[in-house]
Design goal:
24% of the residues lie in helices and 32% in strands. It has 277 residues and is α+β, with helices and mostly antiparallel strands. It has six helices and 14 strands. The chain is extended and about 65 Å long.
Length: 277
C-alpha cells in the first residue's frame, strides 16, 4: 500500500523561512532510511502559497485565484510518498518524523493512496490502466549514440561547441577495463563520450576499423525556437561538411536544412514553430 505524509504549512513556511542545514540533514536522513528499507517513493517541499493559485470551477467555468491564502492550517508545505504493509505500520513511520522540523511543532496528515484494484472494472478504468502500461514502457531517457572511425573526441568537442553543449564524459580505451583488449594505437581512442545540451544528451564512441560501418539511413534531428539560432547551428555543422538541402523556408517551418558534417554524420536542422504563429 502507498501512503502520503502531508506536512501542513505554518507561519514560517508561508513566510518562506528556509530550513537550517541541520533540518535539511535530518529530513534527508529520514528519507534515506526509507530508501534503505525499500519503501521510499517520492518526497518534496512546496513553495509558499503566494507562488501558486487556486482554480475553482463554477458550472464548468474555471475561476483562477492567485495566492497567497490566509488559512495556513489548510495549506501544505510538503509531502512524502512511501509504501507500508498497513495503516499501523505507516503511522509508526510517521512517528519517526524529524523532531527538529518546526522546532518540534508540526502538523502531519497521513493518507492512503488508491490503487487500480480499488475501482470497478470498466471502460473508464481501462483508460488509466492503458496509460499506466504506457508509462511503464517509457525509458528514463533516450538519445542518439554515434559511431566514429577514430575521430570521436574531435567530433564530440565540435558538437559541444556548435550546439552550446558541454562534455560530460570522455573515456579512452586505455582508461577503461578494455585497455588490455585493444592495440596500442587505439589506447587514446574513445570508448564512451557524452555531451549534454541543456537536458539533452548526445553519446558516441570510436569503433575499431574491422567493425566500423559508415553511418547511413539516419539523421540526427535538432530543433530551435527561432530561425536565426537554427541557421547558426546549420552553418556550424556544415563547416567542413556537405550541404544536402540548403537552409530555407518550408511548408512546415520558416527554417529547415540538411547537412552531412565533416565526420560523416547526417543532421536535420529545424525551426520548431513557424514565425508569426
Amino acid at each position: 500500500m502507498k501512503f502520503m505524509i502531508m506536512r501542513k504549512a505554518d507561519a514560517n513556511t508561508e513566510a518562506e523561512v528556509m530550513p537550517t542545514q541541520a533540518q535539511l540533514a535530518a529530513m534527508g536522513h529520514y528519507n534515506e532510511q526509507m530508501v534503505k528499507d525499500g519503501v521510499f517513493v517520492d518526497g518534496m517541499g512546496l513553495k509558499p502559497s503566494h507562488y501558486g493559485a487556486r482554480i475553482n470551477f463554477h458550472d464548468g467555468v474555471p475561476v483562477v485565484t492567485d495566492g497567497p491564502f490566509t488559512e495556513t492550517n489548510e495549506l501544505l508545505a510538503g509531502f512524502t510518498l512511501f509504501e507500508a504493509e498497513s495503516k499501523a505500520e505507516a503511522i509508526e513511520r510517521v512517528k519517526q518524523w524529524p523532531t527538529c522540523d518546526g522546532d518540534g511543532n508540526v502538523s502531519l496528515e497521513l493518507r492512503q493512496l488508491f490503487t487500480m484494484e480499488d475501482f470497478v472494472e470498466g471502460e473508464g478504468l481501462e483508460v488509466h490502466r492503458n496509460l499506466d502500461t504506457r508509462l511503464q514502457r517509457q525509458p528514463a531517457s533516450i538519445c542518439a549514440h554515434l559511431n566514429f572511425n577514430g575521430e570521436c573526441a574531435e567530433a564530440m568537442n565540435f558538437y559541444a561547441d556548435t550546439l552550446g553543449g558541454e562534455i560530460q564524459m570522455m573515456m579512452t580505451f586505455g582508461n577503461s577495463p578494455m585497455a588490455g583488449d585493444i592495440g596500442a594505437e587505439w589506447q587514446d581512442k574513445i570508448i564512451h563520450a557524452c555531451i549534454t545540451v541543456g537536458k539533452l544528451k548526445l553519446m558516441g564512441c570510436d569503433v575499431p576499423p574491422d567493425r566500423y560501418q559508415k553511418p547511413q539511413g539516419f539523421s540526427v534531428q535538432v530543433s530551435f525556437a527561432d530561425t536565426e539560432r537554427a541557421r547558426a547551428a546549420f552553418t556550424g555543422l556544415a563547416d567542413g561538411g556537405a550541404i544536402n538541402m540548403p537552409f530555407t523556408e518550408t511548408f512546415w517551418s520558416k527554417g529547415f536544412g540538411m547537412v552531412t558534417d565533416r565526420f560523416g554524420i547526417s543532421w536535420m536542422v529545424n525551426t520548431d514553430t513557424p514565425e508569426g504563429q
